[in-house]
Amino acid sequence: MGALHRLQSRQCSSKNRPDCCCGPRLQSVMETNGLEWLVVPMQQLVSWGAAGAMVFGGVVPYIPQYRDIKRTQNAEGFSTYVCLVLLVANILRILFWFGRRFESPLLWQSIIMIITMLLMLKLCTEVRVSNELNLKRRSFAAADSKDEDIKAPPKRSYLDFDLKYFWHWSKFTDYMQCVLTFTGVTGYITYLSLDSFLFVETLGFLAVFTEAMLGIPQLYRNHQNRSTEGMSVKMVVMWTSGDTFKTVYFILNQAPFQFSICGLLQVFVDIAILLQVYFYSYYPQKPASHTAHPVSTKAL
């Protein structure tokens, strides 16, 4: 009887080993392999979603602002210096990409942001000029500040870098000239200095540091006015959530260290503005005398 039992055991081990001895383990492996068809596409979908959020997420806050300006035909609540800062930052970031390749979504984000800021500039310029009583033209490359109605050729050309009128020109083409000039000069310098590690790293730091400083004027304005009246709290919350997501994306995707450091700086600035909202709401301050400023220097 014992010999018969040993014979049956050997037959089970040799012929029916998967069913008798490795059944549970094989079943576990099959279940794991069966989930791969679901897990892998889900991971890919999450990755595409994060990349899409990085590319288009930065321009979302400007969509309601664009629609509001177009509806009211009033651009006083939006500072065109926001466009200037973001144009400079994203042009420098694209140039940095030629020296040190980073994630493609970050490159596309810069391209989309540049297009968005140019559209904002075009709308703001058209609205402002249509509302101005003074028709005297201010240009980037002008001649003796001729009126727009005068078609006479200019006597002399110069760059209108007077701080009083800089970035307050009367035609969108003047902004385009300035942007193209800046891109051409910085692009040429970058081309000559691509072999310099120090230059490339400095260029990357300047690109993200410029963008990180975008909230500082708003922070200073709130402090100067001792109030956050006229500033959209929802928009600041959107800045904070967007900058937090962006910083986490930088860290997880091992983007150049400049991106992570300046992303953290942006989050701190956003949190500081939110603290101002809380402080000035519960502890109102006497407004200091000040000159009228645009409602926001970052975005509303």
Structure in words:
The chain has 300 residues and is mostly helical. It has one domain. It has helices at 2-15, 17-20, 23-56, 62-72, 81-99, 104-131, 172-193, 197-212, 216-225, 233-252, 257-282, and strands at 141-142, 158-159. A two-stranded antiparallel ribbon has the order 1-2. It is a multi-pass membrane protein. InterPro entries: PQ-loop_rpt (IPR006603), SLC66/Scramblase_ANY1 (IPR052241). Keywords: Membrane, Repeat, Transmembrane, Transmembrane helix. This is Solute carrier family 66 member 2.
Topology record:
Elements: H1 2-15, H2 17-20, H3 23-56, H4 62-72, H5 81-99, H6 104-131, E1 141-142, E2 158-159, H7 172-193, H8 197-212, H9 216-225, H10 233-252, H11 257-282
Antiparallel strand pairs: 1-2
What percent of residues adopt helix (DSSP H or I)? Answer: 55-70%
Return Rg in Å.
29 Å
Count of helix runs: 11
Distance between the termini: 89 Å
InterPro entries: PQ-loop_rpt, SLC66/Scramblase_ANY1
Transmembrane segments: 45-66, 78-100, 106-124, 172-191, 258-280
Pfam families: PQ-loop
Subcellular location: Membrane
Descriptive keywords:
disordered C terminus, 2 strands, mainly alpha, two-stranded antiparallel sheet, 300 residues, 11 helices
Task: Give me a quick take on this structure.
This protein is mainly alpha-helical. Helices cover 68% and strands 1% of the residues. Strands 1-2 form a two-stranded antiparallel sheet.
